[in-house]
Protein 1
Amino acid sequence: MRDNVVPFKPRQPWEASMRTERIRTRDGTELQYWILGEGRKTLLLANGLGGRLFAWDPLLERFWRDYQIITWDYRGLFESGSPASHRKLSVPHHAEDALLILDAEGIDRAVMVGWSMGVQVSLELAASEPHRIAGLVLLNGTYGHTLTTGFQPLFRVPGMARLLHEGLSHARKYPGHSTSIRALARSAQFLMNNFVFKFTAPGRQDEMRRTMTKYFDHVLGSSFENYMRLFLELDAHSVFHLLPEIETPAFIVSGGFDLLTPARQSFDMQWRMPNATHRFLFRSSHFSLLERPDILLSPIAQFLDERAQWTAPVGVHSAAV
């Protein structure tokens, strides 16, 4: 499945360095990925659900000269193909896809930068293949069971997870009824553009409005059915029990006004992961990097310079296929 949309903002300085590749997974699913940048060290960007290169603009502008940056469309979304079975849209499958891309490019170790859904993909890969991950930058995400805490910023509301799950399942079973979900999404877009971003992104409202238009146009496009299925897969997935075993250095970011992945989950990750630090931005929503690049880019650069383990520890095997 392919949407005729450009996944990045045109005429950016890093655009001239970018190339597009396609690769076939072991189950026959075709993936499309992009490589840009001039550095030798690699940042592997794990998108949010529905996000693409345009959602990383501040990071790309800051780091493209110093790093090689790779990202991909998740299986089932946008320019990548859909697997034969919906069951193969699970988070472990996306983590395997990330590893396959690293192997195809001959990359031994990379820093995973995950946003939203990408946090779960990054944690899954760090738990299963820690010798391939030099560090984790985890933005506005959770360790799993997304619907259990989604839209419940302060405490869990009894029955909310079941309601969200049933709503998504119903919309998938009866595609004609997905119109109501699309209408809710557009309402959320209106509220964020006209109210939330005035508080969380001072001086950047126009840029956030343009980004949200791209984001919702992509989300509500031809990949919408798989988008809803992926929400269910995110709810089915969890690495909570594995967090104490993830020793990879991690920099975690959360927002005080993040309704989808409430900040309390980031505090949980900080407490349970042995080498994690956490930056809580009260004046931020689910789009912290886009809202507050002035606050986040320097700490991310410091993390990459000082804490990321670009060389595997002695005695740890790290070799790409």
Protein 2
Amino acid sequence: MKYFPLLKYMVALLVIVGATCNARSQTGQKSLKELQEIAQRIHSEYFTIDTHNDTALYINNPNESSRITKGQVTFPMMKQGGLDAALFAIYIGQKGRDRESLDSATLYVRDNLDRFKVYVENFKDVSIAYNSDDLVRNKENGVTSVMLAIENGYAIGDDLSNLEMFRDMGVRAITICHNGNNNICDASMDKSGPEHNGLSDFGRDVIREMNRLGIVIDLSHASTETVFDVLEISEYPVMASHSGVYAIKNHNRNLKDNEIKAIAAKGGLIQVATGRFFLSELPKDSVTVAHIANHIDYVRNLVGIEHVGLGTDFDGGGGVVGMENASKMMNLTIELLRRGYTEEELAKFWGGNFIRFLKHQNL
């Protein structure tokens, strides 16, 4: 008799697993039209967010030449694609670290933040969101949310007070480096190799100050040593806003298994990017939504659906066949439905995880 409770538990577990497998099997057998209808309903009912694009700079500076596809995100495209919100990053490239260069970088980011905020304010039914409550309320009211971010902590120079200044301007996330080492930390793509072996002393102060101010720490572009230094210091979960899986595509910008596990263990997020160079060795016109889904599958299977989302890197190199811009976001939902993702899993993936992540940081 003492084994009876265990037997009941095992029977109940088998029933649940069987029901889940049956539901996934039925989803996989649905027609494209049926999957499209399910995807539309999911995007209508649940909060959805893209945690990284480079659109703000393109909007501010539309005539700057670039080899990268631009114009992938507009507010009407977001509506069409069922995307409720996005983190719009002001990117600053890595340059000199003399006084004049650092001051120039800070001013450049300030100016672009100011100009982009004015742009957003001129749109009806679009609003800057500063916390999770804003995101949820905007969703309920049919308002598109813009969250402000900075890509490359180089923008703060060597002055911690710039963090508070950017926070007061509305910035809620900072990618602490880009492709080159800066005063904060080492980057994964710096060809000269490590400079600080992770975080510098100044970088450690930056992480503590970001925690204090309520600015999300973004580890995309950071070296492995930097990732683990940040995780040791930060009191709050962190995210990689637009990264891929190294085990699938051997690329220095992608996250290794130990990094993914460590970020997830502290409650963080791995937001899968859509840049072809992160996803596959195939030519650009052969990389599709399925390749994005492969990276999502890998993270889910490694650390759980609670730690994965999407950071497209649109207007910064992102986009694949089938998800060329923000109007095509539902194609990814359809692909994940085909793979057996449940409605609950998709609700977490598209935005539930991010809302929970922000609340853990009192945002």
